[in-house]
Sequence to fold (386 residues):
Amino acid sequence: MQEVFLLKIGELVLKGLNRSRFEQRLMTNIRHRLSKHGDFKVYSMQSAIYVEPLGAADMDGAFEVLCRVFGVVSVCRCAVAKKDMGEITAAALEYLRDELSAAETFKIAAKRSDKGFPLKSPQICEDLGESVLNAYPRLRVDVHNPQVTVFAEIRDKAAYIHSNPAAGAGGLPVGTGGRAVLLLSGGIDSPVAGYMMAKRGLEILPIHFYSYPYTGIEAKEKVLKLADIMSLYTGRAAPIIVPFTEIQEQIRKSCPEDMSTVVMRRFMMRIAERIALDNGCGALITGESLGQVASQTMEAMGVTQAVCKLPVLRPLVGMDKEEIVRLARKIETYETSILPYEDCCTVFTPRHPKTRPTLEQCADAEKGLDVEALVERAVGEIQRDI
Ligand code: ATP
Ligand code: MG
Fold:
């Protein structure tokens, strides 16, 4: 039996001129993401996206991928039937055999988008319901709380039969909002921050500050793994690795200890902004959450953001750790994030960081550093993991 995925997309965002751009980008993203699972024809018709396998394809794998594509509200895996009640009935009884055999209650939900189809929706429900009851005399109709709903959608090209649709990932298609640099550490928060902004339509370019040999190869590999898991939602982007050892050593040598964290974070923002501008990105994203640690007070965020002009997006700013952890588990980055490798921040953490740094104190702490040259060298030595 021929199968196809029918994807429903958010109606509200589809108004006006944006619609075609939104759909085109969504279809491009879907084609990229499905490339490992076979050949598919992806097209849009009647406010839905169709994903049709061309020849043998990994339909189970494709289904999992599609449930993680932003911009999709629900994913229906359907049997395709000719627009004829006999064919529709035969397809429904065969395609949903396992579910109907196991259930006690069911209902039919018919939708006739092709107004040329001779039967109206209530009539389709009645005819199909009767055939299901004849085939499964044990079943009862329950229109309020059925165990199985048999959907029959009569559309332009064919009829589509499916049971309960799966929830899509929601949000907006990645890329429709532009690109942004994600400061990706090895911790729990930043992959979640990347996920959240990708959900709002941003394409994510992850960058990682790497302080070899203070942080080992394992720490870098952990970050690459996190980027890889995150990419199931955000789409693939090769992380950029920024050598950060020299900057951290210089900070340790010439800054007051209680200012070292905030000075380090100011360097991260300067470098991130340079990389963002070089790569067509319009914002920086961090995993900061207000009050989580000493460097995430309002004042500390103020002085770190003061070194750059691009907006700094902090999607986790108002979230509790438990809420962040719940999301990290959902997107499956959590288990990797808690692997015990040092991050460059933890290695150089001062005992008593200043929680209310001022711009004057920052300027004073950075007096002994050649900020421009250090930034220049770090940017000049970035590596791209491909
Ligand atoms: P996370 O849980 O994401 O590691 P954190 O709790 O360790 O964050 P901080 O160390 O204060 O918090 O870092 C705050 C944010 O700064 C991180 O969420 C991340 O966006 C960025 N950041 C920290 N360290 C690095 C790094 N080595 N490379 C890139 N970004 C970093
Ligand atoms: Mg954190």
Q: What stands out?
A: The CA atoms of residues 267 and 371 lie 8 Å apart. The longest strand covers residues 72-81. The mean pLDDT is 93. The pocket of magnesium ion (ligand 2) is lined by residues 187, 189, 287, 292 (CB under 6 Å).
